[in-house]
User: Fold these one by one.
Assistant:
Number 1:
Amino acid sequence: MASNNEKGKKYEGFSKEILLLQNLTWDYDSQNKNIKFDKDVEDHKIEGISGQKHQIDIHLISSKNPEFHLLCECKAHNPAVEKTHACSFVTVITDIRDKHKDWKIIPVFTAEDGYQSGAKKILHYYKIIYFEMKDYRNVQRTFNTNITSKMPKFEELNGILEDGTIVDRDVCLINYSRGDSYGITNAIKSFELFDSNNKKIENLIDFTGEFHTGDRCIMIDDSDEFYEVRTNKKLVAINGTVVGNTTCNLGSSQTVIKSKAVTNIILDDGNIYRINKDGTCEKYYDQDESKKIFE
């Protein structure tokens, strides 16, 4: 299990990847809009006016507008961000801003599990942009499917050829229309089925007792008939006795569906944006709808 520190570092890397996306732009004020950040500052320790150095999770700058600095705090832990965390970050930003008068600072807070109401009020009041976003890059859903077949269990099973010859269940038949070889059990579905009282049987799966076939059902075309391989004589009827049914395991399959989304970003204004792996960005007004990341 990953430690909290490992989880935090992973979330910082993810947050930085999102904040550096070139389809994300930032407004500092009415005169400075659509700012893009493209460079990560390696030294994340920034001194404030108090003389204290603060460890900043993410520090980004803009090549085009070097006076702008994005300073971000990241929280990957449960529960939601509390008021004390928000107050602490406000203090850090204020200390740094008072020291670096020439910096145009855009403060950002990212959290994996959202914010308590008190934290939201504080961050909003002090104009700190807060994101709620989860890492969906490696999320996947696995479906395991077991393929089974339910078949009648025969006590007796015989076929009758066109000259009256009776053949048992092990006879090999060929169907020229389908171009393949079959056994009698495969040929049964090509005939009408009746019980000993000549009552029609819809399906042998749930039937027990003696049965016989009636007219041939046309499955593909008029020439869709079965012939005994050795004599090349046509199969004209089948009879037998069903004593129950059996289930055969035909195998299993596994389907993996991967998330098409990188993340959903819930902004402080309530808007939800999904960033997809194909580079597109979609806006949602319904939070439940935005969580459908596999569609």
Number 2:
Amino acid sequence: MAGIFNRRNSNSTAAEMSFVDHLEALRWHVLRSFIVVLVIAILCFINMKWLFENIIAGPINPNFISYKALCDFSHWIHAGEALCMPPIKVSMQTTTFGGQFMSSITIAFVSGFIIGFPYIFWEFWRFVKPALTPKELSGTRFAIFWVSLFFFMGASFGYFLLGPFTFNFLANFNLGFMIETKPTINDYLDNLINIIIGCGLAFELPVLAHVLTRIGLITPNTLKEGRRFAIVIMLVVAAIITPSPDWMSQMLVFIPLFCLYQLSIWVSRRAYKDMEKKEKEEWS
């Protein structure tokens, strides 16, 4: 953090800012982000019943779009009923008087964070940007767009694909006729939030590879040589993101992560070549 502050001072044409001034600037960035999340959260809370029934409870709804789409896809590739998941009927409960109210607060603020993610990252970018050199800034065009795009792609993957597989497996898993699954609303929300946010952050891998290559911390060869270790890490991440222990759900996470890692190598190679080209032009 001190390095960022020092570089902000060195790049600024105005009077040098003190450590307290930088903290004050950071405070305003955080405050504005919180206000945006709060406004969205209030709107979500006002429409909570519709939001819960149509969005939050989607992955456990027998009529959820993903169930039909996956079954149709399974038939289209002539795989029979391999991807057709049996419908589930889950009756959730709460064990406290304020359980539903507190769950509504959680849903509202998490929805506010997800919807407001582009603005939150924009505020973060405004704080970090002055610390970057002109050379580093040259490779950050459309940074907000790409970061937001990959985050929403990951969140959509978790919500529309991984979520239904996970909840379907867990709801239909049965140790015996004497046991009935009646999850609490908090348990469901914890799993759903972990899946959506976890996948959203995991899909930022290509963006992270581009940034680290630009600042000289990694190269394409580094990613290639570390692929075997990355595979192990991705398997662990897949096991953490997916609450269910079945191999199918974990493969649903691992395969996109592996593809993203391959994409990261390509992105890193492109960034590395651009850097080499610019260095040759500067020396010529």
Number 3:
Amino acid sequence: MEKKDLVKKIPLFSSLTDDDIDKTVECLKEEVFDKGEYIFMEGDPSEWLCIVKSGEVRIMKHSASGKDVILDLFSPGEIFGGVAVFDKKPYPASAQAMEPQTIVLKIPRKWLFTLIDKYPAMVSEAVIYLGRKLRDAHTMMKNLAVERVERRIAAILLKLTEKAGEKDEKGIRLNMHLTRQDIAEMAGTTVETAIRVMSRFKKEGVVKSYEGKIVILDLKRLSEISGR
């Protein structure tokens, strides 16, 4: 997808004129990252709002014990790093490329706030964005604190279905390259437990693996397991 088309599809920039979209595209800094390479680290100054152009990106938190927790995953067309940019504080977590040749477009914070001053409608979109991030954070904290691991993993799969699910004749395919390690780090559990839970879901006919992707076979049952 062309840069201009990508920017136009992002709700935050929906009120911009074509002229200012062109100016935004001119401001973009394009960078390519290898799998496992960090786009920014926790504590770095939040100078850039980032857009995934291709590949996948995960946001992760490093604990004092050395255990990583994945907070979110992003696919092409999604923005990340926005909470810190709007708050003008350092990035609270690290962003890491999940695929070879992951391409990220970066918008300077200075230009972003220039646009916000010019387009009041962007403030409403920013509030919606921040509200969604706050709700997601509360849900994650609740799940990690009180929910059983089966419910946590089911809730994660449902969220990813909404973000990156594509329906076909086999079910709902998650268009992300997820390993059991990724699922474990998102659910705050061990890889062994994640493997055991996913195996149980497969035996029950809830999910299956196909061509390296997770396919949701029974969305209703997955919702029941998650407690929705």
